Amino acid sequence: MHTPPAKAELERILRGIVGDSGLVVGRDARARQCDPLRRRPVLAPIIVRPSNTTELSETVSACVELGQTMVIHGGLTGVAGGAYSCEDDVAISLERMTHIEEIDAVGQTATAQAGVPLAALQTAAAAHGLMYPIDLLSQGSATVGGTIATNAGGNRVVRWGMTRRHVLGLEVVLPNGIVLPALNRLVKNNTGYDLKQLFIGSEGTLGIISKAILQLVPLPTSESVMFLAVDDFDNVATLLNLARRLPILSAFEVMWSDYYELMASSDSGRSPLPRGHDFYILVEMLGYNEASDRSTVEDFLQRIHDAELIADVSLATSARQVRDLWRVREGSEVLVANMSPFVSFDISVDLRCVNTCISQIKQALSNRFASSRFVTFGHLGDNNIHMGVNIGPETLELESEIEGVVFSQLAKFGGSISAEHGIGQLKREFLQLCKSPEEIALMRQLKHSLDPVQLLNPAVLFNKRPL
Amino acid sequence: MHTPPAKAELERILRGIVGDSGLVVGRDARARQCDPLRRRPVLAPIIVRPSNTTELSETVSACVELGQTMVIHGGLTGVAGGAYSCEDDVAISLERMTHIEEIDAVGQTATAQAGVPLAALQTAAAAHGLMYPIDLLSQGSATVGGTIATNAGGNRVVRWGMTRRHVLGLEVVLPNGIVLPALNRLVKNNTGYDLKQLFIGSEGTLGIISKAILQLVPLPTSESVMFLAVDDFDNVATLLNLARRLPILSAFEVMWSDYYELMASSDSGRSPLPRGHDFYILVEMLGYNEASDRSTVEDFLQRIHDAELIADVSLATSARQVRDLWRVREGSEVLVANMSPFVSFDISVDLRCVNTCISQIKQALSNRFASSRFVTFGHLGDNNIHMGVNIGPETLELESEIEGVVFSQLAKFGGSISAEHGIGQLKREFLQLCKSPEEIALMRQLKHSLDPVQLLNPAVLFNKRPL
User: Fold this and answer.
1) B201 Cβ contact partners less than 8 Å away, ≥ 6 residues apart
2) CA of A278, closest CA in chain B: separation in Å?
């Protein structure tokens, strides 16, 4: 238990480190929001914005000396409350650390400060014929550091994996202020513990990522997208199995009929195929050779047609059609307009029982809340299903109860309560549903070893209490 | 500092846990070798062979209670001395834990005990049209647990990555005997620290892997291999850059002329192209569609021919020719026959300076040892170069000095002293060449947190001394 120091003294010390332009205080801090979906102002009275690793390290050291809790801010696009602060905290924002130090076109790597937005990284990479394969809707705001700290996923995990796979090296400011230089740039380097792994996906609880060396891939030059209607989940699974044998497969996005009905009836140009089928699938392929990629696509279509796996198909033949098909899958404004208020789920479950699990979740919700409405869609190739649930006007008041119903069904199937969004502060109470006591004990042991006083993101992952 | 207990009492306790058939003692233990390249008997007087996780956990608990150091044995194919023991140690071998519990053809995963050899895993996977993409020459002996503990690489890292990428979940017996059940099987699961990462590549110093859930890939059905002669390293780099745009690229193996000369002159059928060029490259592509893969290969050949990147080419058109081309790259018996005694290196260096670095290493060795001979080859797409060095009959006596010359040159280029083989006991003294003091301090902190008395693989990675 620490006593917060006089904020005036703290502000004076931090100002000495980062300068006037490095501080946002009082009403200016409170004017900021730290959740992209809910109204949630920054409650920390001081936001420190170091402009380099040295300032960041000094900021952390000063906070440690004063027993001051710190909350880390990346692009503030997380939906699990990882950036929420309280009046006792100081927020540390990486927003001024936006330098892309190098794009290495030979080794196909990028070296970037933590505050670089993914969109800026993509632009820099594309200038060298390269791509960073993490594809998020929020890429204009989501940052290198934030997406590493949360091991972000997105649409193309089925081809390129999650963020963890692309991190070659990290520089991290540890909870004691020491800078850990683990800036490996080699694909293969088996010399001792791969320490960067500790920080990837740990949601800012073990250190603050200040810089990263990332693996890029060649920028694709050919793109094909098809939209399929399918009437049986077994056929969906068979299609996925066949699609996995396409080396250029880059997305396999499944939409349940509840989702597609909403899109197709929204009068927003999101109806590439007739309504009434059970499942719709968007299959994207990204490659590097127009001719052979076209032959791959045609062969695949022929094969799934001959096997009678699909009820209907639409193949995009222009960039505009590609965009239009993706608009169906990325129809968040339709969701917001038609489903609000809704509770959003990001679950993961064994492919063999995905459909049964989803059905049982919906049944359990309908049993408990008669007016339940759902939309269901997701990255099936990665076991990852997103679900929106509205049970009526009191949806948000009953959020925790709705989560309880969903997660207790999910637990029967060994599912995960968060495929990609993370635990943050909002899902802490459910962590024990998908981590064993031994795992939680080891998590706490690591947290205690690196941050014994719990000063760094103290309310994230764990309930704030003596470890 | 522990006092070893009376071995008779220890043996009695361990026999009570694993039974008579679970123990190998005395002369039978000493008769075993624990290094595939050097004569190195097992010095531990007792080898415990638990047959399941419970016995393994009880074995560890018993050793902890007695302050008994433990050395872990997988397939004993490691070349960094990770399995070396001394008379004070007990060896724990996973050799009886060889059960493949499940191949899930839908989710494309395997669940296997740690002692399963990779070849057995491959056979089981192939029966379901699947493949485990780690391809090692030692796959008949190397085990699931050992390759995870050392994050094994191999020939196909350029396509599928190292072992770390394929591990979905682990069961680990911690250094205190507690079983950590982290048996995730989901591709996406962002719920707290990804604890399995801690054990992958930590060479058995933080826990004993008892079971793993592994990600498989569809078994390729089409295979193409070409052998290229190239006369300039810039062309090699350009070729790699082009090859990376082939979605079916699965190996890009470069042989320097010193290596190829040895193979081609060995009278062992390893001479697919005329001698005299500077570099030879084996390019392998594995895919799932004969027709489109053939078109990809032909298009690539046309392209690199038009760009005048290659001096000569041989394309395998039968399974036998494919095998013959791979025999050139995997000519270890020629190396042993012509280069012995030699010191073997497994280094990793930034692609932009690979060739300069290799030249400077050879120059420095030649300056120091007039009769130096080299062979140089490796997985260039992964920055990973293997090198064999013979400086005359006294090569092995001067091993440490030879390593010093190589590693001090390598350090100038920020290279890694071990791309895939690991540190073990044999490279400990050089660890500080490629890890910063802060990294080594954090490694020690983690070791101390999990294994405070240093009972598990106590001489691996770290010099055995109070942490």
Assistant:
1) A190, A193, A194, B149, B150, B151, B163, B164, B422
2) 20
CA distances from A149 to A53, A57, A223, A365, B351 (A): 17, 17, 30, 33, 28
Q: Give the Cα separation of B20 and B48 in Å (integer).
A: 10
Q: Which two tokens stand for residue B271?
A: 């001479």
Q: Do A421 and B178 touch (CB under 8 A)?
A: no
- Parallel, antiparallel, or unpaired: how do β-strands A70-73 and A90-93 relate? parallel
C-beta atoms of B288 and A104 within 8 A: no
Could you identify the residue written with the tokens 């072992």? B163
Q: Which two tokens stand for residue A38?
A: 């809910």
> Which residues are bridge partners to B456 per DSSP?
B70
User: Residue B59 falls within a domain, yes or no?
Assistant: yes
Sign, Cα dihedral of A205, A206, A210, A214 = negative
Q: Distances in Å between the alpha carbon of B264 and those of B261, B270, B340, B375? A: 5, 5, 18, 13
What is the pLDDT, as a whole number, of residue B126?
A: 98
Of the candidates B192, B247, B349, the beta carbon closest to that of A287 is on B247
Among B61, B96, B131, identify where a domain stops. Answer: B96
pLDDT digits (tens, 9 = 90+) for A11-66: 999 999 999 999 999 899 999 999 998 889 999 999 999 999 999 999 999 999 99
The domain tally of chain A equals 4
Q: Is the pTM of this model over 0.80?
A: yes
Please name the residue that has the structure tokens 């920080």.
Answer: A199
Contacts of B248 in chain A (CB under 8 A): 247
Q: Which residues pair with A171 in a beta bridge?
A: A181, A211
CA angle (B327 as vertex; B325, B332 as ends), nearest 5: 145
For residue B208, give the CATH number of its domain.
3.30.465.10
In single-letter form, the type of residue at position B158 comes to V
Say yes or no: B326 and B227 in one domain.
Answer: yes
Query: End-to-end CA distance of chain A, in Å?
Result: 11
CATH number, residue A394: 3.30.70.2740
Partners of residue A417 in chain B, C-beta under 8 Å? 191
Question: Any idea what DSSP says for residue A82?
Answer: T
* ipTM of this complex: 0.96
- Amino acid symbol at B213: I
**Alpha carbon distance A34, A41 (integer Å):** 6
Spatial CB neighbours of B254, under 8 Å, sequence gap ≥ 6: B236, B279, B280, B281, B377, B378, B380
User: Which one of B64, B96, B128 terminates a domain?
Assistant: B96
CA distance A353 to A359: 10
**pLDDT tens by residue, B60-94:** 999 999 999 999 999 999 999 999 999 999 999 99
Are A114 and A120 in contact by the 8 Å Cβ rule? The answer is no
CA–CA gap between residue B181 and residue A439 (Å, rounded): 7
Distance from CA of A119 to the nearest CA of B (A): 22
Rounded to a whole number of angstroms, the distance from the CA of B93 to the nearest CA of chain A is 22
Sign of CA dihedral B130, B134, B136, B142: negative
